[in-house]
Specification:
The structure holds 2 protein chains of 2 kinds.
Chain A (H helix, E strand, L loop, with lengths): L20 H7 L26 H6 L16 H21 L12 H12 L7 H5 L3 E3 L6 E12 L5 E11 L3 E3 L1 H12 L2 E2 L1 H16 L3 E10 H4 L10 E8 H4 L1 H12 L1
Chain B lengths: L5 H13 L2 H5 L5 H21 L12 H12 L7 H5 L3 E3 L6 E12 L5 E11 L3 E3 L1 H12 L2 E2 L1 H16 L3 E10 H4 L10 E8 H4 L1 H11 L1
Parallel strand pairs in B: 2-5
Antiparallel strand pairs in B: 1-4, 2-3, 3-6, 6-7
The chains are: A alpha+beta, B alpha+beta.
Chain lengths: 265, 219
């Protein structure tokens, strides 16, 4: 099988419905910043992911209120500044629920909950560049590399309730391999945000693509959504599975099969 | 039966700590008060989203404050319910004194320290003293106490005392095994750790053979 240097990822043959296109009109910003491959503007891609774009992005670093698709919308200093108003908001919530914020178990809860929430959204203060810079190695390897059963914890952006699951990542290197834990760190950056599982899966795949320019990337995520289990329809055992296949994983059914078989075993 | 003095002592603590002056003010549910509360919580969530660095005007987050407020109210709906409301009709006189176990009751609660879920299973047994209770009512008692801001130890004890008060049985045993997201998703981040708490009252406490029978059958 030949792996061309510049892989083109077109969505024309893909059978998945174009569920992102309707959202594009409202959220899409710089869809013209296509660096490697074409995603038809369907993907919300952090513009600072590639090394060449790093210097350009330094000048327009996003403010705190900027859209979520910018890589870093808050800093460690922002965290400390926001803490008092977050704690006050949580105190209001406790009161609104009918609890007594002064009782012994709840006295410091607003602060703990605020810090916890900041931890659950720490992906907003991290960038791919910080995590990846040194760990890309030139290796004469073009067979599939899979890291599976990466535990993932995210927050549902609709109900602010946890999403708990696992993600399996496979890629076909194109002479460049990535440190293995960096795959898990990419997952962490994107999962520790207010997310939708479909978007999370795609962001992980796109980040790996942009960092390594591999021949193909496959990401499969299966998760339990507490918003479905603890409330609402209350189905304990249901799981949601999403996947993103790019490059040769999408085009070649045998590669995809191999990946799916290996992650199942 | 005194149940080793535990129940009366605990009931006092439960009432004082759980029901404060804010709760006492509202003796009956009032819809307009509820709506005001939802809007307060909603505004608080909007502030939280903004302070976390998110864009509250993006499509996915537009109605999130309202949804999160309603979700949080659902997760704490146990405050408005009492065992008396749900149990009154379902207690039956039955000439049965052998152990009754309801196990693998799925349980979802909120950690009162971090406002993060913990969930697991509860296994409950009692030795009837001529009075049995409808089986789903045991699960409903679990629901009442778990849908609150809780500490697992207190939750276990409250379930046990509620059953004691309602049925006056010869013995009650409650075991809860749960996973705490505040330990899994943050902090020490231990995925596979679970917490087990148990309360053994009456014959379950006094007689080791009874306790052993329960533990064998339920776990």
């Amino acid at each position: 099988m030949e792996h061309s240097k510049q892989a083109q990822y077109t969505s024309s043959e893909h059978s998945k419905p174009a569920q992102y296109t309707s959202n594009d009109k409202t959220d899409s910003g710089d869809s013209s910043s296509v660096l490697n491959g074409h995603f038809d503007g369907m993907v919300k891609r952090p513009p600072a992911a590639s090394l060449t774009a790093a210097t350009e992005c330094g000048s327009d670093r996003a403010t705190v209120m900027e859209s979520w698709k910018e890589e870093r919308t808050r800093s460690v200093e922002d965290n400390e500044i926001s803490l008092p108003s977050l704690a006050a908001a949580y105190t209001t919530i406790l009161r609104g629920l009918g609890e007594d914020p002064q009782r012994q178990g709840l006295v410091k809860t607003p602060w703990r909950a605020a810090t916890a929430m900041q931890f659950f959204t720490k992906g907003y203060q991290e960038t791919i560049i910080d995590v990846l810079n040194d760990a890309i190695f030139d290796e004469d390897h073009d067979e599939m590399v899979i890291v599976k059963d990466i535990d993932v914890f995210s927050m549902c952006e609709h109900h602010l309730v946890p999403i708990i699951g696992r993600v399996h990542i496979g890629y076909l290197p194109n002479k460049r391999v990535l440190g293995l834990s960096k795959l898990a760190r990419i997952v962490e950056i994107y999962s520790r945000r207010l997310q939708v599982q479909e978007r999370l899966t795609k962001q992980i795949a796109v980040a790996i693509t942009e960092a390594l320019q591999p021949t193909g990337v496959g990401v499969v995520m299966e998760a339990t959504h507490m918003c479905m289990v603890m409330r609402g329809v209350q189905k304990m055992n249901s799981k949601t599975i999403t996947s993103t296949m790019l490059g040769v994983f999408r085009e070649d059914p045998k590669t995809r099969d191999e990946f799916l078989t290996l992650i199942r075993s | 039966m005194e149940m080793n003095g535990v129940v009366s002592e605990y009931r006092k603590k439960c009432v004082e700590s759980k029901h404060n002056s804010l709760c006492k003010e509202e003796t009956e549910p009032n819809e307009t008060v509820d709506e005001t509360k939802v809007s307060h919580i909603e505004k608080a969530y909007s502030t939280i989203l903004a302070e976390l660095g998110e864009d509250i005007n993006r499509e996915g987050l537009l109605r999130t404050p309202l949804r999160a407020a309603k979700a949080m109210q659902f997760f704490t709906k146990g405050y408005k319910e009492t065992p008396q409301d749900i149990l009154n009709d379902a207690i039956f006189d039955e000439n049965h004194e052998e152990m009754v176990i309801v196990k693998d009751i799925d349980l979802f609660s909120l950690c009162e320290h971090h406002l993060v879920p913990f969930f697991g299973k509860a296994h409950i047994a009692y030795l009837p003293n001529k009075k049995v209770v409808g089986l789903s009512k045991i699960a409903r008692i679990v629901e009442i106490y778990s849908r609150r801001l809780q500490v697992q130890e207190r939750l276990t004890k409250q379930i046990a005392s509620a059953i004691v008060e309602a049925l006056d049985p010869t013995g009650v045993a409650v075991v809860i095994k749960a996973v705490h997201m505040c330990m899994v998703m943050r902090g020490v981040q231990k995925n596979n750790a679970s917490t087990v708490t148990s309360v053994m009252l009456g014959a379950f406490n006094d007689d080791p053979i009874t306790r052993k029978e329960f533990l064998n059958l339920a776990l």
